[in-house]
Design a protein that fits this description.
single chain, about 425 residues, alpha+beta, two-stranded antiparallel sheet, disordered C terminus, monooxygenase activity, Cyt_P450_CS
């Protein structure tokens, strides 16, 4: 079993690769080129993501492409303590428990706390969009979660484009295949993102003016007591959330929009059918997960599905392939919001590291899809559109989603076609 995540075919159509991987006799094998183990199969992937006793998160954000000595020396400046995403127990359990106490993790609580915020940002972006003919919906798909995560954390919105650039560079450094020269630039961006978070948190802690948002809540929880949380841990939690909290939702929203606009019947239903809206979101997460690969490190020798993986091995856990496992999903390559077991997808992970921002992501997706379909009912994908994703071993985000208005008088529900109900 071999994976070439940086190839043109994979960037255009990862599902074809997932289908090939799922058809192999052995869903677990060593890839000599990537120098890591590939783990496919829904049950295998769920096991690895849930098993914190044998699989460590310490390698989660270590670049998949080996760094040059110079780039590595620069990246050493990103000396954030391990929390949440990059931590193992007991540090993970402690910091995640704090986040769970402060962040809504259910749909009802997320709507209560963040619904007005998400709706306001959606309306603001749609108002700007109405001023000119929409041409590329990926701008909307990126801007909404980017601004929302700033609001959630309590960061100034004026810094959003700067943080977007740093976060994109960091993601490309970790999951991409940058040249040695580009590695250096990306390493500087990654350290700049960390320093920004550390400086913001340090200044607020020193002044005692903690501010609004989750950063303020974390500092109030800290209560000037390092035994609760250190200032560096608060900054690291902010880094984790700003780093992961918008870029993945942007990918998911772009994918959900592409699937909806591919069928006028789907687009029409999103505006007023809440049941279908939720089904559409879950099937997007299954069919086209924004994170389709994740890294783990074996703590001990592990035998999985009859294959023994040595201790200290890096493992690329193939979430996209797991979500297309034909043993779990009939015709997994087909986008079908009414399929059974869609809720068993692994787009948000599994086990103790299940995405703590899942409720917020779902809220953003449903709010955005409902509003866009309701206010722009005649929208369609531009003629000649061919999907192209950013080159990455793990993050699946469309590079663009060009759109146009359907001709006047064309019924949005295709009679006798594949309209959903």
């Amino acid at each position: 079993m071999r994976l070439d995540p940086f190839s043109g075919p994979y960037s255009r159509d990862p599902a074809t690769t997932w289908q090939r991987l799922n058809a192999t006799a052995t869903p677990i094998s060593y890839d000599d080129d990537l120098e890591m183990w590939l783990i496919a199969g829904h049950d295998n992937v769920r096991t690895v993501l849930s098993d914190t006793a044998r699989f460590s998160n310490a390698a989660t954000l270590l670049p998949i492409t080996a760094l040059t000595v110079d780039a590595g020396a620069i990246l050493a400046g990103l000396d954030a303590p391990p929390v949440a995403v990059t931590a193992d127990r007991p540090q993970h359990l402690r910091t995640r428990g704090i986040l769970r106490a402060l962040m809504p993790t259910t749909a009802v609580r997320a709507e209560q706390q963040w619904g007005p915020l998400v709706t306001a940002r959606t309306d603001e972006l749609l108002t700007d969009m109405k001023a000119s003919e929409p041409t590329d919906l990926m701008h909307f798909a990126v801007q909404l979660p980017l601004l929302v995560i700033h609001d959630v954390l309590g960061l100034p919105a004026a810094a959003s484009e700067m943080i977007r650039g740093w976060t994109d560079d960091f993601a490309d450094l970790v999951w991409g295949n940058p040249t040695p020269e580009v590695q250096i630039a990306y390493a500087y961006s990654s350290v700049a993102l960390w320093r920004y978070c550390a400086d913001i948190v340090s200044r607020r802690a020193e002044r005692g003016h903690y501010g609004a948002g989750l950063i303020g809540e974390l500092l109030r929880y800290r209560n000037n007591d390092d035994s609760n949380l250190t200032v560096a841990e608060v900054a690291a939690l902010a880094l984790n959330i700003v780093g992961a909290g918008w870029i993945t939702t942007a990918g998911a929203l772009g994918n959900a929009l592409a699937h909806a606009l591919a069928d006028p019947g789907r687009w029409a239903l999103l505006a007023g059918n809440e049941h279908y809206l939720n089904l559409h979101v879950e099937e997007t997460l299954r069919h086209s997960p924004a994170i389709d690969g994740w890294l783990r490190l074996t703590i001990t020798d592990v035998t999985l599905d009859g294959v023994t993986i040595p201790a200290g091995s890096r493992c690329l856990v193939l979430i996209g392939a797991a979500n297309h496992d034909p043993a779990v999903y009939t015709e997994p390559e087909v986008f079908d919001p009414h399929r059974g077991r869609a809720g068993q997808h692994l787009a948000f992970g599994a086990g103790p590291h299940y995405c703590i921002g899942a409720a917020l992501a779902r809220l953003e997706l449903t709010t955005a899809l409902r509003a866009l379909a309701g206010r722009l009912p005649d929208l369609a994908v531009a003629d000649g559109f061919r999907q192209q994703f950013k080159t990455s071993a793990a993050l699946r985000q469309l590079t663009s989603l060009p759109v146009q208005q359907r001709p006047a008088g064309r019924c949005p529900v295709g009679h006798g076609t594949s309209a959903e109900s």
